[in-house]
Amino acid sequence: AGWALAVIMRHARVVHPHQDVRETRMPRMYLFPFEELLRVRLHPDPGVAISFQEEILLDGKREEEMVVQIARRDMPKGEEVFFWPGKLSNSEMVVRHGMKFDKNPVGIGRNITQPPNWAEAKGSKIRREYDKYNCSSLESFELRFSPLGSPSKTFVRCYRISWFLTNGWYSPALQNRRRDLDKWPPPKKYGKDDWLSWTQADQEVNRVILEYCRDMRARLKDSIDAALAKDFRRSKDPVDKLLWQVRGEESKTFKECMKQAQSIVV
User: Fold this and answer.
1) What does the pLDDT average to over 49-56?
2) What three-state secondary structure class fits 19?
3) Would the pTM count as exceeding 0.85?
4) What is the rounded CA–CA span in Å between residue 54 and residue 39?
């Protein structure tokens, strides 16, 4: 069963559910029995690549469920079509597809820090507040980092909002401070009257970031010994080289993350 799973993970494509059920169904992986689709290149930008989605189309008088691709813009004849692999970091790309992108907007990491006041009901009052800041799903609370160790703006913004909501410091006026909510590292000093709440929120964000990056770097270090590392460095196998390169990128990313977090004084 292992080889079958490997084939599915490598060649299956992400298919988004029909618009009417996207609130209740997650995207799924489909394996299409068309050889020509396997030759289409992947692209990390969903704005460039064309994703698959389920649609209900009319065939005469009958409604048929189909998987289609819909271009986001007019495309001239002969323009190359790319597929979007999904929200995958380079590490995840190597595991699933045996390749990585030179420039990937999806950072390394993935751990989701669920807010203590998160509600599953999408129409609940707390979820409506999160929606105002584009924190509409738990993916918004994923810890992902750039090669320089910077956390995603989405995580910083959404975790700050979570802290304000949880600790009684929330104000609807925060909707007018989107730039401040996205900013990281935080400023050394806030110039508004609510500086204390922002400083405390920043302390918590930084604590979560530092703990995660420290833990991930320790795991990478403990997952390999000197003999195995030596084998990887000497290996001529392309997959071994790729794995070693990605592992080095991960280690450097978490090291830079720790360095940045430890330099922040809030």
Assistant:
1) 84
2) helix
3) no
4) 22
